[in-house]
Amino acid sequence: MTTDKLAVDQGLLYYLIKHIRPELAQKISEKKTIETMIVGLGRQGTRHAQLMMEYGTNVTCGVAPGKGGTYVHETVPVYESAESAKRKYPDIAVASIWKHYSSAKDATIEAIRSGIPIVVLISEFIPLKDVRDILVEARKHKTILFGGNTPGIIFPPEGIKVGMLPDIFQAQKTDNKTGPKGVTILSRSGAILYHLSDALASAGIAQNGVLGVGGDGAIGSRFIDLVSRIMQYEHTDLVVIAGEIGGMQEELLAQDMEANPEKYPKPLVALISGANAPEGKTMGHAGAVISPGQSYGTYQTKKESLEKAGVTVVNHQRDLIDAVRSKLNRIYFDIEEYYSKMRKKWDARPPVKTWGTLVTNVMPNNLIIRGYPLQEIIAEKGFLETSYLLLKGEFPEEAQLKELEDIAKEAIKQEFADLKSITISSDISKTLGTLMLVDNKLADFVRLNSEETKIAAYTLGRVLKYFAYILGNLDQLESSSVSETSFSEMIYIGLVKEKNPDTLKVKLLEAMITACVDHGITPPSAQATIILASTRANYEVAVAGGLQAITDVHGGAGQKAAKFFLSVVEKAEKEKLELDESTFKLIRETIKTGKRIEGLGHRIHTQDPRRDVLWKLAEDAGYAKSCVDVSKMISSAFHRVRGMNLPINVDGVIAAITADMGLDPKLAKVIFVFGRTAGLAAHYFEEINTQPQMRRIAFDKATYKGPSIREIK
Amino acid sequence: MKLYEYEAKQIFEQFNLKIPKQIAIIESVEDLVDISLEFPIMIKAMVLIGGRGKAGGIKKAETIEETENIIKEMLGLTIHGYPIKKILLEEAVDIASEIYLSITTDPATFDIVLVTSASGGVDIEEVARTKPDEIWKKVLRNNDKSLNAEIGKKAADFLVDKDQNLQLVSEKLQQAIESLYLAFQDAEAKICEINPLIVTKKGDIIVADAKFVLDDNSLYRQTPLLKSIGIDPGSKRHDVSEQTAFEAKAYQIGFPFIDLLENPENFVKDEEKLYVGLVPGGAGYGIFSVDEIVNVGNRYFNGKVVPINFMDSGGGPSISKVADMFHLLMNHPATDLIITSRFGGISSCDVFIQGLIMSLRDRFIAKKIMIPVYGRMVGTDLAAAKAFLEKAKLETPEPLIDLHIVVGNQKIMVDVIKDGIEYGFKVKKQSENMEGIK
């Protein structure tokens, strides 16, 4: 949230990394970012991944066995193991572990072994024997391990937090510029950290690093392992430790300070809790228990040994403020400004929960698929390439495209035993969905293949086969030679029946199909597929469900529009009217009978981005004839009748072109449904890869998280 | 979890260490009726707190009369305030040598430490202070599953070197050391201590006294072991005593709670004082807030403020668990005032306030005792929490009349505590005046 941040290679976290992994520090310094990884994506891990990112932490990836290949918060890739994550992101410097105590050991050791220098072990209640195994490994790899049972670490000047600490810590600010100076706090307890920095902030004392060392009895880094090193960091002016009863960390530090004062060049204030604790009763933290009869571990032993080493020991918030203030004698930021920042935070309305899609950005008059404007895709790319783009975010390489083409053609050739037993309904979507559901070959292919682009290509081949059957073109399609016919040509043959069609027609038909591939998560068909996917329904069930939601009301207007355009042209010829006059008259007559004019109006676009490119392609191919002319004048004619501006939509444009190509008006809807199959497949896979199952889906709360806007190269 | 001696010995026996014949665990003199005794026997108080030998909790008896007298006397004893309720009777063994042997966790590095001495049967800390040469100590850095035989041998050699009588049992000693290590690792102990490990005249090696502390964090996977020594895996105890009723209740619901008052079930209040219950947030602040109550009480209220509990209410509790935390304190006979702090990190202010309000509404409807609640909330989900609180106060003002929550951190917690205590005294005075009028 801070707009002005300290460069990462000036900060304390970088300083700690540099000490143990100088080469990695060099890379961080070049990249100007510290990459982190989150291990364990249960409820807490997932939630705090988001809060960390919101704070500004660079969360590059996650690790969760069984979830490899999926995404968390739609954009953070998840890997099966720390090792595989590290292969992809070799510069990860910090890992946080959010696993249940019963599986924390293996996950932590894995992270340590992958060479990550800083490991933050959030998990609490880890068995002692497991902790010892972790410590053996950490020593071997010189890892700085925080925790177990740490709330994490936060570095306010750089705006980096790893863990669950709330955003209440304050960096040095001079003239609105963030500085690196302040006190560094280390604490065994989380909540104390918050109260402590709360107290310090109220006195204008900045924190340049706040480190939870962990509340468990056995932990990775102890005060003695960290305090001296932190005091060597030039921007730390004072160190505060928050200790508590139990164990001998505080006593060990005191002994070392007494024996080696030169290692401790900065002042230290210790807040010790547990002055009034009973003996022999563990106080929440596994480490916080006074063991009867021992010469360490009590409030008294800690206080006395620290005071002997010259440390100021406090047990009260006000005393802490006084002690730190008297030693530093300065403030680091404007206290009023701090409070007004906090007040703003506390007074804020609860944030709206959004979720993300990376497929298509739907904006009025613009459709951006994976960063590319759809009109450019229509002009430049084929249907298979676009279906690949929908799934992968990039266009395929030539070899990949060839493979997909082969798969799609193979799908056409493979038999479909029961195909002809299915009754063809007047509702194309219904028949199509039914065929998809009873198609065992498709089901087998989906089950046996893990690559989503291949599944989509196979689906498109099969859907073409269904259409050929519905339209009575199956024999022609199946008899076309696989080696001599391209998939684009097969589309033409399957939908139109014409053998050896000319290239311009083939391209124009494919462009219209491509124009229909997707409209983001806004149309009901995509929403139906997404809802089915969220229940983890089978792929073909979810896609068929989406396809069957394409009706006369949604996406099926083309057929009626094509008929309308043909009637306008016919009327003009019969009554010897100019086309615009004929359009006007027919609209007026149609409206009088209470019917709608199809192909007009759009929920989102006032000028459909797919319109001009399709008109132009039709013109280039020589198929922009009377119906296309009508489609260009229909809006103004409609205005003349009703006084309303209703733009032509993509259904209308496609209807006009198919009519001018002399194709069956039915094809207008077929084109739409065929194209949309690719989009539905993409939404299915996005849902299962990036969202928890059975989530509550608020479609109006979706935000586009894909690439902004780019040009096709 | 600390084990009673007889439980510890059962575990050691499972790991092939010899123990004296266990005759019985009794809770009264009458229990002796069904038991046949071969004298001499040892009579040992089963308490968790240490130092029972000096306090008269370990006696030897030669006759039945002596046995009865010792038992009667012992059952009336308390050791460091903890009454003796159970007594172990076991065979007394003859002693040729007494050895100290322990495997524990190094408090500094958390490694495993093996310590042994031929001067067993006495306070080992004392030996360490006065005759450090008598102690052999080895820190084991690798957390191996079994003890490296070389190390076992070195330890045994040291013992033989210090006490030539042990020459004949050197191999048995080494085995005993390795067995103890296995017991420590397999049972996932924090502390395994045998003092003394007795070598009899016949050359048997016997565990005469045993201290065994299990790691609480590993209990979930030690169910077979716990069952094998008769412990209900769902129960819990302190290192010094069994739980109070409130502690047991909290444990059952699933949050750490400790009574700071003695005999809390039947507590008699000092009317001069204000007793403060705490729902403080995480464990660390739980400990600190007890200190803050005492500090504030001493500095501003003549030492008349008494904290009644420790509680760890952090770590993301559910709404109903938060409600139970407040119910527990409102059902506690001592509570005059509850001070609460929610500094939402992992746990959410929203869940906290919903739970708190749920408990107040439930109590109001069920006509249960209502105790004033004073506190502050800051951090994760504060905005939603604030909205919920405001709405709740509008919808059901009556149950929330004595709920005072500062929203945000413009006032640091210790100042909120001070305000809360002042308010607590004011309410207390008012209710006393009301009583007076009646």
SSE arrangement:
The complex is a heterodimer of chains A (713) and B (438).
Chain A: H1 12-20, H2 22-31, E1 35-39, H3 43-55, E2 58-63, E3 71-72, E4 76-79, H4 82-88, E5 92-97, H5 104-113, E6 118-121, H6 128-141, E7 144-147, E8 152-155, E9 160-163, E10 172-174, E11 177-179, E12 182-187, H7 190-202, E13 207-212, H8 223-232, E14 236-244, H9 249-259, E15 268-273, H10 299-308, E16 312-314, H11 317-328, H12 335-347, E17 355-357, E18 360-363, E19 366-369, E20 372-373, H13 374-380, H14 383-392, H15 398-413, H16 428-438, H17 440-448, H18 452-471, H19 474-479, H20 487-496, H21 503-515, H22 524-534, H23 539-548, H24 558-575, H25 579-592, H26 611-621, H27 626-642, H28 650-660, H29 666-690, E21 702-704
Parallel strand pairs in A: 1-2, 1-5, 2-4, 5-6, 6-7, 12-13, 12-14, 14-15, 15-16, 17-21
Antiparallel strand pairs in A: 3-4, 8-9, 8-13, 10-11, 18-19, 19-20
Helix pairs in contact in A: 1-2, 5-6, 7-11, 9-10, 13-21, 13-26, 14-18, 14-29, 15-18, 16-18, 16-23, 18-20, 18-29, 20-21, 21-26, 21-29, 22-23, 22-29, 23-29, 24-25, 24-27, 24-28, 24-29, 25-27, 26-28, 27-28, 28-29
Chain B: H1 5-14, E1 22-26, E2 41-45, E3 58-61, H2 64-75, E4 78-79, E5 82-83, E6 87-91, E7 97-105, E8 112-117, H3 124-130, E9 135-140, H4 149-162, H5 170-186, E10 189-199, E11 205-207, E12 210-214, H6 223-228, H7 245-253, E13 257-259, E14 274-279, H8 283-300, E15 305-307, E16 309-311, H9 319-330, E17 337-344, H10 349-365, E18 373-379, H11 382-395, E19 403-407, H12 413-437
Parallel strand pairs in B: 14-15, 14-17, 17-18, 18-19
Antiparallel strand pairs in B: 1-6, 2-3, 2-6, 4-5, 7-8, 7-10, 8-9, 10-11, 10-12, 13-16
Helix pairs in contact in B: 4-5, 7-9, 8-12, 9-10, 10-11
